[in-house]
Amino acid sequence: MAFEGLADRLQNTIQKIKGKGKVTEQDVKEMTREVRLALLEADVNFKVVKDFIKKVKERAVGQEVMESLTPGQQVIKVVKEELTSLMGEDESKIAVADKPPTVIMMVGLQGAGKTTTTGKLANLLRKKYNRNPLLVAADVYRPAAVDQLETLGKQLDIPVHQEGTQANPVDIANRAMEKAKEEHLDYVIVDTAGRLHVDEDLMNELSQIKENVQPDETFLVVDSMTGQDAVNVAESFNDQLDISGVILTKLDGDTRGGAALSIKAVTEKPIKFAGMGEKLDELEVFHPERMASRILG
Ligand code: GDP
């Protein structure tokens, strides 16, 4: 399970301070030292860890006494609040265009889970938000990607706009917009090409598509199992494409959690959804507070 090591270590650490009737500066120092190590071991970006510890220290040492909690519990409350805010304040909403269709552009590296997540997101939009999406196969370089999306559409009974692998992705996206308008579909989700690494050609093509379809959301799909790499990828995509949010996949695996805990701080873009398995209903709205509770027990 994701975060297992981190959760174990943090829970151990806070257990020590929990029952304390008096928390000294030394106690806070020891606790934060252990929290720091636990976060670094979970592959959280070192700068993110540094800022996090600084905030916890400041708040934990100088905080006001609350009658309902023991001093130990108050320190834990601070850690939990800061962990939550590290991942984003509230659950973030998905955009709705003033004039339909709302356009969502999916970007990310090959293998991150982009195509699968495109299907999952359409499924969620229909089930949770009662929307009618159109899927768009704009990844023309990987022939299997078009077929994969087509298959997902059939499985979900959601329409797919595809023009094979010969057409230009920008034209495909533009025609899909027309189709959505004609057929009164209120969301268009564009699955774009990925590469094994971030490169200039990819970014140029994605920028072009973005300029043309003017998406209301640009979601970067990243594999949480890739740790610090996921954070670097997010930084590059955000610099070039000004993404609006991140979808973290494979949180059902045994990721140490570094990506989930660093991406928001590094890119200042929220994690909006989390992939929790390969099945099409295994995409969840990302709740920072629930995630923090899961980690801290
Ligand atoms: P793309 O190249 O980015 O379009 O990636 P795909 O959508 O083809 O996904 C790559 C692999 O990751 C597939 O085997 C998916 O089933 C798998 N995958 C995607 N999301 C998740 C997830 O949240 N959890 C798990 N366990 N596997 C996932």
Automatic annotation (TrEMBL):
Catalytic activity from the UniProt record: GTP + H2O = GDP + phosphate + H(+)
Protein name according to UniProt: signal-recognition-particle GTPase
Q: Which CDD domains match?
A: SRP_G
GO MF annotations for this entry? GTP binding; GTPase activity; RNA binding
Q: Which UniProt keywords apply?
A: Coiled coil, GTP-binding, Hydrolase, Nucleotide-binding, Ribonucleoprotein, RNA-binding, Signal recognition particle
Report the enzyme's class at the first EC level: hydrolase
Write the Enzyme Commission number(s) for this entry: 3.6.5.4
Signal peptide positions are none
Which InterPro entries does the entry link to? AAA+_ATPase (IPR003593), P-loop_NTPase (IPR027417), Signal_recog_particl_SRP54_hlx (IPR013822), SRP (IPR004780), SRP54 (IPR022941), SRP54_GTPase_dom (IPR000897), SRP54_N_sf (IPR042101)
Q: Which residues form the SRP54-type proteins GTP-binding domain?
A: 270-283
Question: Which SMART domains does this one have?
Answer: AAA (SM00382), SRP54 (SM00962), SRP54_N (SM00963)
UniProt GO cellular component terms: signal recognition particle
The Gene Ontology biological process annotation of the record reads:
SRP-dependent cotranslational protein targeting to membrane
- One family name in Pfam for this protein: SRP54
Source species, please?
A: Gracilibacillus halophilus YIM-C55.5
